[in-house]
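Notebook, student rotation project (T.W.).
Task set for the rotation: take a protein with a known small-molecule partner, predict the structure of the complex, and write up what can be learned from the model alone. Partner molecule chosen: S-adenosylmethionine. Sequence and SMILES entered below by T.W., checked by me.
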Amino acid sequence: MAKKKRLRIAAVKTIPNVTHAGAQLKGRWPSIFHNEHPITLELGCGKGDYTLALAQKHPQRNFIGVDLKGARLWVAANKALDLELKNVFYIRANALDLAEIFEANDIAEVWIPFPDPYPKKPRKRMTAPRYLDIYKKICRPGAMFHLKTDDDVFYLFSIESLQQYGCTIHQNSTDVHSCPEVDDNVRITTFYESKHIATGLLIKYIEFTLPEENMV
Ligand SMILES: C[S@@+](CC[C@H](N)C(=O)[O-])C[C@H]1O[C@@H](n2cnc3c(N)ncnc32)[C@H](O)[C@@H]1O
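Predicted structure of the complex:
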């Protein structure tokens, strides 16, 4: 592993706006943010493009980025500190552990920008039923999910998985950047998204809510 990456993984443990799975976080979010504003999650946040952009636009909301990779979170968390954003926090964790971190109804909105497509392991995809089960435990009824991907297989898998699970799909585009009716937030462009656009890939977008029966 490159030295810079190793140093960042070590340093991320000491940054005040980052924590890790296993820390006692459940039920503590109002005291961490010093308010009870609604929380938006960015799953697989990488360098935190969505949390950083949305937090600047919406100071009356809180934003939490979750990723497995410490070196990427280091970049996100330092940018948030440079921008003096008080409504942003990052957690080094697996999205499968979200129910250890949040209580029922904690989460008001979820962005999933460019999740790993896991070509040979569909159950690891963030729209597989075992992930949807976890989201159901922590999201408020009506919490809106925003999924962006460049990957056709992941996109088609997600449509099928969401429909089978009983989710409601509110918007669905196979080329979101040429779609006039999407919200401005969907135009925020992440690190991976820029790379995909540069190679000519079209960006797919799905906006959905979970089925409301048996939430929690
Ligand atoms: C392709 S990158 C996209 C990063 C960023 N969203 C972007 O668009 O630039 C996928 C990210 O998801 C993270 N990831 C993959 N599986 C995860 C999981 N189960 N829980 C949390 N993060 C995960 C990876 O570490 C990686 O940073």
